[in-house]
Design a protein that fits this description.
The complex is a heterodimer of chains A (322) and B (332). Chain A has 322 residues and is of the alpha/beta class. Chain A folds into 2 domains: 167 residues, 3-Layer(aba) Sandwich (Rossmann fold); 128 residues, Rossmann fold, CATH 3.40.50. Chain A contains 13 helices and 12 strands. In chain A, α3 runs parallel beside α4, α9 packs across α13 and α10 packs across α11. With 332 residues, chain B is α/β, with parallel strands linked by helices. Chain B is built from 11 helices and 8 strands. In chain B, the strands form 2 sheets. Chain B has a 6-stranded parallel sheet with strand order 2-1-3-4-8-7, sandwiched between helices. A two-stranded antiparallel ribbon of chain B has the order 5-6. Chain B is globular and about 50 Å long. Classes of the chains: A alpha/beta (322), B alpha/beta (332). The interface between A and B is large, with 39 and 46 residues.
Chain lengths: 322, 332
C-alpha cells in the first residue's frame, strides 16, 4: 500500500469509528485533495463531514479550534504546510494554549495535517521544512511519519489524541509503498522512536526523505565495515530521547541529519540533549548534517546543493567514525 | 438594516426584569471599579482592560439568550463572563492569580474561561476569537443542536482579516453566530475613522449577505430587542448576524492608559458619560414606576456587598501550587 493510501485508510477508519471526526480544508472534497489523500472520502462520508473551505487558512483552522472546544475532533488539511504560516496564530496562540489558559477546562483534540519539507523545484515558498515552527511550542505535538505503516498508525493516534497534533507528511513520499497493517486498531503511540537499522559504530538520527538517504548510505558504508544504527524519531515533540540516548550509549557516536536549515534546528536540539544525557559515552562530538542556511532555490543544480546529499552524508559519517 | 431606535418607552417595564438588568449592570460596574482599586494596590498584575461604560451590551444580549448558548469574547471580557453567570468570587480570584480562579490562576484577566456556563473564553489576540466562534457555530450545526453563539469584539477587530474570514464562512455555511461589535470608537488609541475606510461597521453585513444592524449600545432594552431578534433567527434558520452596538468606554484602554487623554478630549469623555447606561436605565426604571429610588439603593448595596465578598474570597485563596506550572499543558 502507498503512503498516500495508508493516510486515506487511517482517515476512513477513524471517521467510521467516531462520528465526531471530520475533515476540513482546501480542495479536500470535490477535488479529492490536492495530493489525493482524501480521495473517495466525500463519496463515503458526504458533505457534512468532508468540508471544502475557501482559501482562508487562519479562518478554517480557527473553526477547527472552536469546533474542538465543543467536543468535535477536526482534521484540518493544509494543502501544503507552507500555508500553515497563515494559521500560525490559531495554532500557537489558540490551539496550543487553550487547555493551559483555561486551567484544563477546554482541551483541543485537533489534527492539522498535510505535506511539508523539501519538494521538487517548487522554490522558496513551497519547499521548506516547517516542523521547527511548531515543535518549539509547549502544548503542541509534532509528528513526521516516514513510512506507509507509520503514516497509518501515527495518524490514527493523532486523531485519537486529546491535544493538538501537527502532522507533517511529504510530497516526495506519497507514492512510496510499504507494509501497512489492516487492523483498524493499529496504532503507533506518539512519542515513540523506531530503530530502522541496527548498528554498532554510530547512531544516525533521520526522518522523512533524509531517512531513506541515510539507509542508502548505511548500505554503502557497511561494505567498508562501518555499521550505522539509524533511529527515526517519528514524533518530534514529545521526543523519544530515551531511545536516542540508549542508542548513543551503545555506539558512542551521534549524527543528526535534517533537511531544514541547520540554525536552531532539530539537530541542535538533539545534539544538546545527547550531550546533556550521555556526554561521557561520546567518543566524538555530535555532528549535524543539515540543509544549508538559505531559502530553497528553484534552479535544479542549486536545489541539489541546498539539501544534504548522499555523498555529503557519507563523507560526514566516515569522518566521525574515523 | 438601519439603526434600531431605543425601545418604545410607552411599554411599561416589568419589575422583575428591571431589577435583574439593573442588578447585573451594577454588578459588572462595581466589580470592575473594585478591580481597578485592587490593581492600584498591586493585587492584580499585567494588563487589566475595563468594560466600564459598555455594560448594557453584555447584560442586554445575555438576557435574551439561554444558559446553553455559547459566548466567546476578547480580552475586555470580565463583563461578558459575569453576565453569562460566572461566580464573581472565582472571576476575582482569577484576576488575583489564585488557585480558586476560574482557570486556577493560569489565565488571568484576559483569559477567563468557564465551561460550566458555556463561556468559551477571553482571547488576547485581536480578531483571533472570531474564527473560534464560527467553529462553535459549526459544531452546533454538526451536532444538530439549537444553541446560538454570541461573539463579542471591538471595532479594533474589524480591520483584521479574521473578521472577514469569519463573516464569510458563517454566511457561506449558515451558522448560528451573532457577531456583536462593541464599537467604542477607539482601538486602543486609534479612532475609528483612522482605522476603517467604512466606519458604519454594520454595513459589512451587506457584503456577506447577512443581517446587519446598528443599535444604541447604551440602551439595555434596545440591545435586548435587537439581539433577541437575531438570536431567534439564528436558532430557527441557522443564520448569522452582525450587530454594531455603539458604545463608549469611560476608562482608558487598560490600566496603563488611565486617563485616555492623548487621543480623546476630556470634554468628549464627560459628554459620553451623560449616556451612562446604568444611570439612564435606573432613572427610567424609577420614572416608569418599575423600581423605587429605595430599590435602586438596595441593589447598589447588595451588589457592593457581593463584590466585597469576591475580593475577600480572592484574597483568601492561596496562589497555585508550583506543580501547576506543568499541569494542563497537555491533556492525558
Amino acid at each position: 500500500m502507498t503512503y498516500r493510501e495508508a493516510l486515506n485508510l487511517a482517515l476512513r477508519e477513524e471517521m467510521r469509528r467516531d462520528p465526531r471526526v471530520f475533515v476540513m480544508g482546501e480542495e479536500v472534497g470535490l477535488y479529492e485533495g490536492a495530493y489525493k489523500v482524501t480521495q473517495g472520502l466525500l463519496k463515503e462520508f458526504g458533505e457534512k463531514r468532508i468540508i471544502d473551505t475557501p482559501i482562508c487558512e487562519s479562518g478554517f483552522t480557527g473553526v477547527g479550534v472552536g469546533a474542538a472546544m465543543l467536543g468535535l475532533r477536526p482534521v484540518i488539511e493544509m494543502m501544503t504546510f507552507n500555508f500553515s504560516i497563515l494559521a500560525l496564530d490559531q495554532i500557537v496562540n489558540s490551539a496550543a494554549k487553550l487547555c493551559y489558559m483555561s486551567g484544563g477546562q477546554y482541551n483541543i483534540p485537533l489534527v492539522v495535517r498535510g505535506p511539508g519539507g523539501p519538494a521538487s523545484q517548487l522554490a522558496a515558498q513551497h519547499s521548506q521544512s516547517m516542523e521547527t515552527y511548531f515543535y518549539h511550542v509547549p502544548g503542541l505535538k509534532v509528528v513526521r511519519p516516514s513510512t506507509p505503516g507509520d503514516a497509518k498508525g501515527l495518524l490514527k493516534s493523532a486523531i485519537r489524541d486529546e491535544n493538538p497534533v501537527i502532522f507533517i507528511e511529504s510530497e516526495t513520499l506519497y507514492a512510496i509503498k510499504g507494509e501497512v497493517p489492516e487492523d483498524p486498531d493499529y496504532l503507533i503511540p506518539l512519542g515513540q522512536a523506531a530503530i530502522r537499522r541496527e548498528g554498532t559504530d554510530v547512531t544516525v538520527i533521520a526522518y522523512m526523505g533524509m531517512l531513506y538517504r541515510a539507509l542508502e548510505v548505511a548500505e554503502e558504508l557497511s561494505k567498508d565495515g562501518i555499521s550505522m544504527e539509524i533511529v527515526d524519531p517519528r514524533t518530534l515533540r514529545p521526543m523519544d530521547t530515551e531511545t536516542i540516548v540508549g542508542s548513543v550509549r551503545k555506539t558512542h557516536r551521534c549524527v543528526v541529519i535534517e533537511a531544514g536549515a541547520g540554525f536552531a534546528g532539530m539537530g541542535s536540539e538533539i545534539a544538546a540533549e545527547v550531550q546533556e544525557e550521555a556526554f561521557d559515552d561520546l567518543d566524538a562530538p555530535v555532528v549535524r548534517i543539515t540543509g544549508e542556511n538559505a531559502p530553497m532555490p528553484y534552479a535544479r543544480n542549486l536545489e541539489l546543493l541546498k539539501t544534504p546529499s548522499k555523498d555529503k552524508i557519507a563523507a560526514a559519517i566516515r569522518e566521525v567514525c574515523a | 438594516m438601519a439603526q434600531t431606535k431605543a425601545a418604545v418607552p410607552s411599554a411599561r417595564l416589568d419589575q422583575g426584569l428591571a431589577r435583574r438588568l439593573l442588578t447585573q449592570m451594577q454588578l459588572l460596574r462595581r466589580f470592575e471599579e473594585k478591580a481597578a482599586e485592587m490593581y492600584a494596590l498591586g493585587k492584580i498584575g499585567g494588563f487589566l482592560h475595563l468594560y466600564i461604560g459598555q455594560e448594557a451590551v453584555a447584560v442586554g444580549a445575555t438576557s435574551v439568550t439561554r444558559p446553553e448558548d455559547y459566548v466567546v469574547s476578547s480580552y475586555r471580557e470580565h463583563g461578558h463572563c459575569l453576565a453569562k453567570g460566572s461566580d464573581p468570587k472565582r472571576v476575582m480570584a482569577e484576576l488575583f492569580g489564585r488557585r480558586d480562579g476560574l482557570s486556577k490562576g493560569k489565565g488571568g484577566s484576559m483569559h477567563l474561561f468557564d465551561k460550566s456556563t458555556n463561556f468559551l473564553g477571553g482571547h488576547g489576540i485581536v480578531g483571533a476569537h472570531l474564527p473560534l466562534a464560527t467553529g462553535a457555530g459549526f459544531a452546533i450545526k454538526y451536532q444538530g443542536g439549537d444553541q446560538v453563539v454570541l461573539c463579542y469584539f471591538g471595532d479594533g477587530a474589524v480591520p483584521e482579516g479574521e473578521f472577514h474570514e469569519s463573516l464569510n464562512l458563517a454566511a457561506l455555511w449558515k451558522l448560528p453566530v451573532i457577531f456583536i461589535c462593541e464599537n467604542n470608537r477607539y482601538a486602543m488609541g486609534t479612532a475609528i475613522h483612522r482605522a476603517l475606510a467604512q466606519t458604519e461597521i454594520w454595513r459589512f453585513a451587506e457584503t456577506y449577505g447577512i443581517h446587519g444592524e446598528a443599535v444604541d449600545g447604551m440602551d439595555v432594552l434596545a440591545i435586548r430587542e435587537c439581539v433577541g431578534r437575531a438570536a431567534d433567527r439564528a436558532r430557527r434558520d441557522k443564520v448569522p448576524a452582525l450587530i454594531e452596538a455603539r458604545t463608549y468606554r469611560f476608562r482608558g484602554h487598560s490600566m496603563r492608559d488611565p486617563a485616555g487623554a492623548v487621543y480623546r478630549t476630556k470634554e468628549e469623555v464627560e459628554r459620553e458619560k451623560q449616556r451612562d447606561p446604568i444611570v439612564t436605565f435606573a432613572e427610567r426604571c424609577v420614572k416608569d414606576g418599575a423600581l423605587t429610588e429605595a430599590d435602586v439603593k438596595i441593589i447598589e448595596k447588595s451588589v457592593s456587598d457581593q463584590v466585597d465578598e469576591a475580593v475577600a474570597f480572592a484574597d483568601a485563596s492561596p496562589p497555585p501550587e508550583p506543580a501547576e506550572l506543568f499541569t494542563d499543558v497537555y491533556k492525558d
